[in-house]
Amino acid sequence: MDKKILTTVQETLEELLKNLDILAQAEISFDELEEAVLVSLTSDDNALLVGYHGKNLSAIQTVLGLMVYKKTGQWFHIVVDVDNYREKRQAQIEEMARRAVEQAKSTGQSIAIANLGSRERRQVHLLFKDDPTVKTYSEGEGRNRQLIVSVK
Q: Which CATH number is 3-83's, of 3.40.50.300, 3.90.1700.10, 3.30.300.20, 3.30.40.10?
């Protein structure tokens, strides 16, 4: 990864945060394995940066990606995280899914998990893809889309 790109991401992020009137420290790196620019933020406004279920975090990530594209003419996979929120949220979702599986096994009924984003639903599908006793699928449209966990 060209160091110039990381500098562009840094400068663009500073511009975005300034426009949002948010003070934050950023650590920017490139993950060769993920082929992504990783942006780790720390701020006194962590809750504001993350938002409800990470919605603000996703929005910042999208806007930052668009701004970098406008400046460079190239798309880069940029992942923005605040105080390891994504890792903590992933652990929460996995725990919620494991509880849903246990409940489905004990009751014999399918369990619906609502309010998950597409990436979060995919995370659960991948978590149980090799488990021959668990079936996961999504149903519904738009905001009403939910993950269903059942036993085979």
A: 3.30.300.20
